[in-house]
Write a structure and sequence with these properties.
- There is one protein chain.
- With about 425 residues, this protein is mainly beta.
- About 5% of the residues lie in helices and about 50% in strands.
- The strands form eight sheets. The chain has an eight-stranded antiparallel sheet with strand order 4-5-6-9-16-11-14-13, with no helix packed on it.
- It starts with a strand and ends with a strand.
């Protein structure tokens, strides 16, 4: 089992899990917590559609009595790269567990990632008043795949959350992407039969305390276009995994900048535990990665550590170059960072423009900025057709390509204004 947890949190988590049975007040009510939630967990069943159309973005589902005097809602926040929800909670085929949240999701028919983001919110029974639970466990079960398709789950529980999984003979790569966000992705590509809580090699659990909700991204990473449907299972209880270990770090940031014919990669770790090294991997198609370099880590620290790596690309011919970090522990276990993309311009002269793609956009738009802006503070303002600012983002040290999530915005025309000091560039964007 791997426990991804900062050292400063260890004593607190041990104290929480050692509690046999405690009670706390949730919005004026007394409910059982700690060991009961660890053992019995939350129950997601007998849902109704609260608003919207089944399977559509923005649709809200109501799940009653997920815990003592607590109801919950699940919202389809976004459908990314064509992914669809065939069934919000599928128990029809006899697989899995009735009390688990089991969405049936169809892949988007694209190469690469397609996924659905769900948000969970807890309420005092029969009201709209938020309820805070002492401890919440979310266990992603049966994350498997095949040679051309690999499932993944990213659980986002916020600051203070931890994750546990089996360290030996695991089918998964589990990594803390940012603070409070844990991603488990299948790496072996082997189909496992059924949905089994004893199949530790294909599952991981994220835990947090005192929260009123969280979100989960479920989907697939494919090498060939596919629109096949897969059943996922999020079992809301904790498990005792064998073979305890600690993930080597928490990755705070990872950026990529293009300086003439050199790509500069910079990243920061918030803490490190038995870290061996970073392998810098590069790809010309976003699917097949090869090692481009190696950087040794501090190893053990409870403070921020900064790293950098420069990669000469003068002999490479590709419109886009992709980079990621492979984070390697001293025991040989590893995980991956998010992927960063560098777009290579065919123009010799830099023009103060920004490039937005894909355009039209469905959920996430990538913004490529001029070379001279990289590594400096850049502000992004998104205006709707009425000239009102609907989203504003500031990057203190901008990468060449930044991403803006537009899944929460309606369809229509938008104008992106990017500012770097006195220099300003604009780009029209269509949201479908």
């Amino acid at each position: 089992m791997k426990t991804i947890v900062p050292t400063r949190m260890l004593s607190f988590i041990v104290a929480v899990l050692a509690t046999v049975l405690t009670t706390s007040n949730i919005s004026g009510q007394t409910v059982s917590t700690s060991s009961e939630l660890l053992t019995n967990g939350l129950r997601f069943e007998n849902y109704t559609v609260l608003s919207g159309n089944p399977g559509d973005e923005g649709t809200v589902y109501s799940f009653p009595d997920v815990f003592t005097d607590v109801d919950a809602t699940v919202t389809i926040d976004s459908l990314v790269n064509g992914a669809r929800v065939n069934n919000i909670d599928d128990n029809s085929n006899g697989l899995g567990y009735k009390g688990a949240f089991q969405p049936y999701i169809r892949s988007g028919g694209v190469i690469g990632y397609s996924y659905v983001v769900f948000s969970f919110r807890f309420y005092k029974k029969g009201t709209n008043e938020p309820a805070s639970l002492d401890i919440v466990n979310a266990s992603a079960l049966d994350i498997d795949g095949n040679l051309n398709l690999k499932e993944f789950c990213e659980i986002r529980m916020g600051s203070g959350s931890t994750a546990t999984y089996m360290s030996t003979a695991s089918d998964l790569s589990v990594l803390q992407m940012l603070t409070g966000r844990f991603k488990g992705e299948n790496i072996l590509g082997i189909e496992r039969s059924g949905i089994d809580t004893a199949a530790y090699s294909n599952m991981f659990t994220s835990t947090n305390t005192g929260i009123t909700g969280f979100s989960v991204a479920y989907g697939t990473n494919t090498l060939i276009p596919t629109s096949g449907a897969r059943q996922f299972s999020l079992y809301m209880k904790g498990f005792n995994y064998p073979d305890a270990a600690t993930l080597p770090l928490e990755l705070l940031s990872f950026g990529a900048m293009l300086k003439k014919s050199t790509v500069e990669l910079n990243w920061i770790t918030l803490w490190e535990k038995n870290l061996s090294h970073f392998e810098i991997e590069r790809s010309l198609d976003g699917r097949t990665f090869q090692q481009a370099g190696l950087v040794f880590g501090v190893g053990n620290s409870d403070f921020k550590s900064s790293y950098s790596f420069k990669n000469n690309i003068s002999e490479l011919v590709a419109p886009i170059i992709y980079y990621r970090l492979k984070l390697v522990d001293q025991d040989g276990s590893y995980g991956y960072s998010d992927i960063r993309a560098i777009r290579i311009s065919s123009s010799k002269n830099e023009v103060m423009t920004v490039m937005a793609y894909p355009n039209p956009v469905v959920n996430e738009v990538k913004i490529t900025i001029p070379d001279s802006w990289q590594g400096t503070e850049v502000k992004y303002d998104l205006f709707n057709a009425n000239g009102r600012v609907v989203k504003s983002i500031r990057s203190a040290k901008a990468s060449q390509t930044e991403m803006i999530n537009m899944s929460d915005l309606g369809r229509g025309f938008y104008v992106l204004k990017a500012s770097n000091g006195t220099e300003v560039a604009q780009q029209k964007i269509i949201k479908n």
